[in-house]
Amino acid sequence: MRNFPVGIVGLMLLARALSTIAADSSSPRIGDAPPALQLGAIIQGPRLEEASWEKLRGKVVIVEFWNTACVPCVAANPHLNQLVAEFTNQPVVFLSICDDNPDYLKNFLRNKPISAWLAIDAPLKPTFSAFHVLGIPHTVIVDRSGKIAAITHPDLLTPEHIQEILDGKPSTLPPPESISPEQTPTVPLIEIPPREIEVSITGPFPKPNGAYAARGWHSTIFHADKAPIDSILTEFFHISEQLLPKTKLPEGLYSVRASAPSNQMAELQKRFIQSARDKWRITIEPTTRRATVYITTVATTNAPGLKQVQERAGGGEKPGGFYLGGLPIKSVVNSLEHVLDKPVIDETGLQGLWAAELNWEMTPEELTTETRPAPAKVIKAAHDQLGLDLQSAEREIPTLIIRKLTE
Length: 407
Known about the structure:
The chain is of the alpha+beta class. The chain has helices at 8-23, 53-56, 71-86, 102-111, 126-130, 159-166, 229-236, 265-280, 329-340, 364-368, 375-386; strands spanning 39-44, 60-66, 92-98, 117-121, 135-136, 138-142, 148-152, 187-188, 198-205, 214-218, 221-227, 253-259, 282-298, 306-309, 313-318, 321-327, 344-346, 353-359, 388-404. The longest helix is centred in the N-terminal third of the chain and has 16 residues, at 8-23. Residues 1-25 have low confidence and may be disordered.
């Protein structure tokens, strides 16, 4: 068993990411049909159209997600090459998928050959995203009937594990939630910086039955999954939804992937603005304006309604309040902003995940209409129950000028 040091921060990020996967009903699971392979190119192997689940039916497929910048991934390749050799001339396909630039990959292969089929994911990693790959190396095994038989780490994979799946038996590999990151070195993808600027906007999509509109930044990588345009813009440009112009935007839900090296973030913003112009027929101009806001600071650290937690969980609004199961403090601030109908700036300095519950007494008018509560009532409840002070102030804060293009 190889043992590579992985930073404590990396392990914490990965553990948090894996807990998110466990709570996400859309994550591929054992027994599910795998998501489509949306590959950009085959560097080594058959024609691109052969890499589809329809064409691979009847074979065991070992899909390996990796990257040439990932030390544990590179170290796992000789072991995987041995497995490829052992199952030559059997209905077993090893498909290695990376997100490298083709030139990087070809240079890498000159000194460190790989025996598997070798593919590059399409721009902005749709296959990585569909399989919810948050840390690499990451191995998914699909059985001959086209169902996911195991999700594992390549260090744990043996010829016996492949043979039992080939024979139609259930996999004896440990379930993914029981795999220890200390024993199986994995690099969180958010630690691997992008090497080039990429922006993709797809949609519109219909409203799904389950959860939707997830969006956020991971270092220099932005994602939004089936979200309305206004929420995409507020998250991408880090602005308050209260200051978003009332311009009528195209309806529907859109998915966005945008990434760039850390020294090219200004260019990423320009590229996003151009993509928005092409896709949504709007112009976007970042600017600032002076506005009345609430500044949030910590009043006390032992408030009954705000507790730091280790696992991520959702939340929502309720009559006379809101609750959050385990989210960054930004989500608490955003909930206060929605209730107060005014920008709220986080200056708490609180890190990690927080469970929050806030309640206030409702008037008969609030119970029967959509009237917002008096700000003073919410501010007092936030102080008493969450230990947060909200003070009114004048600040210069970012906003956008949005115009529709004329046909």
